[in-house]
TrEMBL record:
It comes from the Eukaryota. Gene3D superfamilies: 3.10.20.30, P-loop containing nucleotide triphosphate hydrolases. One of its GO terms (molecular function) is GTPase activity. CDD domains: DRG. Transmembrane segments: none annotated. Residues 39-264 form the OBG-type G domain. Residues 264-352 form the TGS domain. The keyword ATP-binding does not apply. This is OBG-type G domain-containing protein.
Amino acid sequence: MRARVEAKLAKLRRELLTPTTKGGGGAGEGFDVTKSGDARVGLVGFPSVGKSTLLNKLTGTFSEVASYEFTTLTCIPGVIMYKGAKVQLLDLPGIIEGAKDGKGRGRQVISTARTCNVILIVLDAIKPITHKRLIEKELEGFGIRLNKTPPNMTFRRKEKGGINFTSTVANTHLDLDTVKAICSEYRIHNADVSLRFDATADDLIDVIEGSRIYMPCIYVVNKIDQITVEELDILDKLPHYCPISAHLEWNLDGLLEMVWEYLDLCRLYTKPKGLNPDYEDPVILSSKRKTVEDFCNQIHKDMAKQFKYALVWGSSVKHKPQRVGKTRTLFRSLRKYKLHTVVPSDSVLQIR
């Protein structure tokens, strides 16, 4: 019964957030900010936690700062130049409890957050940590899953045969009756459901809904100059946390390095024939686009059409240089949501 209620609530929430008109101003529309650069990072948090100050310090872009709440009323973009990459940083208006249900400009804020590659949840070190849980709840309600990977399950609709439920592990949350109840709420009467981990009802609902976004998140605890050293030591040991003081510019370098790791970007360098590699202007690729063909498209859309082969130097190949084709993967990402490690991106390419 509880699983069926959760499925019904998920459906109602989706219908509430779906735009009802063809024109502007729909429920699920974000701020009109053109996406630019190699990646987009969003600053999310309650009003007056220091998001605007952080944007000003990191990008040099002016975003009004004041001691009262709701200073930022629209989305302010800036650009961070880091390790040769252009990272667009968005200062989003402060959200309030109930944002996912339309309070304030919550829907616009969270809709824009869904377009980001990484979210920075900015918290005030001197205010209750319950702010973190409230913000997570608002983002979860809008289909954003923080520091999680998609559920390891297969859901396939079919024309007949009823609901078939199988699992390779012991399940403590789901059984055939629960799966049937959830599917029934979505008017699905024929499907194969296969689990490879101990899934919950929420996991199955997420897979059926199919509109969830799984996004890396860093909890940026600002104003650490106002807490004790003992409290700072505790914060520094928590996973996905980065303590800073935006006003005093404490640990901003550490934050940028952490953002780079969570973005999972890679620097690659060009080498024209007969010349030395160009280390001043790297080509930036992401873990989702990391082949030689992606490298060519990043430089010019016609390069891949004229491509014959590429010579690659670096840790991504055994021989130096090594001749490769368009489908060759240029770097291996080992990033996990609990441990971030990326194979060094030192490859040099020459396109022939």
